[in-house]
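Predict the holo structure. Ligand: iron/sulfur cluster.
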Amino acid sequence: MSFIFAVVVAAVFVYAGVAKFVTFNDWTFQARALGAPDPAVVLVPTAEVILGVMLVGGWWLTQTVIASILLLSAFTVLLLVRLRDEDRQPCSCFGATSQRPISWLDVLRNVLLITLLLVSAQLSSVTPMRVWIDQDLCTGDGLCEDHCADAFKLLEDGIAYVAELGVPLNDPGGAGSLAHVAPRDRQSVLRAAEVCPGECIFIDIADEMQESNTGK
Ligand code: SF4
């Protein structure tokens, strides 16, 4: 769920950034009319695209979420200031694709996006995920590594081992070799467990050991 929230915000960021680049001349004019400094004309859409990609990838998630919230907060403060203008300009939140004057709906959207980021970060932090493999059941087909090379490695003995950021924990035989799963790898690890033909990938979420492929 936390990943879905992050993806929703990421999609809005990427769309907003790309829309600004696509309508760059109009975006530049509107941004200056809103009082944005010249460097922001290029920096804002660039930051939106980069943050969107990093949210989906899960890279430096905490820092990315904080940067995203700061960016949205800055937008929101600017909107609140401009809402007091008698002659309201378009918000330019999505470049020049919308000529609608700034309204409280824009503020509400930003508050909703900030809320999604906070909930996503909270869910990720309270439900850490770890994974281990019962090597006795492993068939050595390598499907897990195909799905997530960060979390699984097929070693020279033809058996899969869990890994942390691509470094295998070479200690087979059960829950003693639990590997922490990076937030960006959570979905891939779940998918690997679902397709594992040996049904030997086990996932530990928030202290409760559960076999992820019990739904088969
Ligand atoms: S998918 Fe399962 S059976 Fe196949 S290599 Fe990985 S752990 Fe072993």
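The CA atoms of residues 78 and 188 lie 39 Å apart. The two ends are 22 Å apart (CA to CA).
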